[in-house]
Amino acid sequence: MAEEFRDNLGKNVLFFIDNMYRFAQAGNELAMLMNTIPSEDGYQATLSSEMAEMHERLVSRGSDSITTVEAVYVPADDILDQGVQAIYDYLDSGIVLSRNVYREGKLPAVDILASGSSALSSEVIDFTHYGVALEAKTLLKKAESLDRIVSLVGESELSLDDKISYQRSRKLRNFMTQSFFVAEKQTGRPGKYVERKDTVLGVQGILRGDYDEISEDHFMFIGGVEEALPVKNPQSKISPVSIQKHRRSSSNAGFVSSSGMETTSVKA
């Protein structure tokens, strides 16, 4: 059907597949019924060629295209499963969801290090975005190794440099959370749209250490990084006439001092 819209009607097609792993699984079930010899991980021997034939049809032709969004089930959370790997080679970008990230209460539960995109290139995005993305991934990879040390001996046993890197990585992970508009009723949090440039600037500030003094909890489910900054309540200004009026009232009352009334007025 997607090919019909592209080839004969001249349309650009957005094609959703839920889920692509089921295609591999169906081929495996048919192979078992036909008693064919299985290959790696028990899948049919023709798995790679079947995936290639399927994905080679989901391409652009001339000025018309098929853009495909595929959901891929990962059996036993094993990203190296042969059925998953046969699909992964044909994806330009992959967003990997993680149960561990979900257990930490971070939504969307994206495994940042396992996710990636061919568009993350200096030929596609600007140099600042590209450099910040690489630096952020380097920090998260370092923090992943530090996680094992922290789980054994605690964060206090880290060196000063490692402790700073570890704390920045936690702020960075929290900053990657976002409230979705479609989940407002479930979460009770209003949805937020964040511009790409604001995300890049926020990550750059965290990596640079601009927010080292701010608690990591302030970075959860915010929009721009400026929302993590503490809000200062300016003191209300009271005119001399108002203060003088309170002084006269206190002297008439006889039980509240003028200084006490002034203090109360300033707080109010």
TrEMBL record:
Gene3D superfamilies: Bovine Mitochondrial F1-atpase, Atp Synthase Beta Chain, Chain D, domain 3 (1.10.1140.10), P-loop containing nucleotide triphosphate hydrolases (3.40.50.300). One of its GO terms (cellular component) is proton-transporting ATP synthase complex. Residues 239-268 are annotated as: Disordered. Pfam families: ATP-synt_ab, ATP-synt_VA_C. GO terms for molecular function: ATP binding; proton-transporting ATP synthase activity, rotational mechanism. Residues 250-259 have a biased composition (Low complexity). Residues 125-184 form the ATP synthase A/B type C-terminal domain. It comes from the Bacteria. It is found in: Membrane. Keywords: ATP synthesis, ATP-binding, CF(1), Ion transport, Membrane, Nucleotide-binding, Translocase, Transport. Its main location: membrane. The keyword Membrane applies. The keyword Manganese does not apply. Residues 1-117 form the ATPase F1/V1/A1 complex alpha/beta subunit nucleotide-binding domain. Belongs to the ATPase alpha/beta chains family. This is Uncharacterized protein.
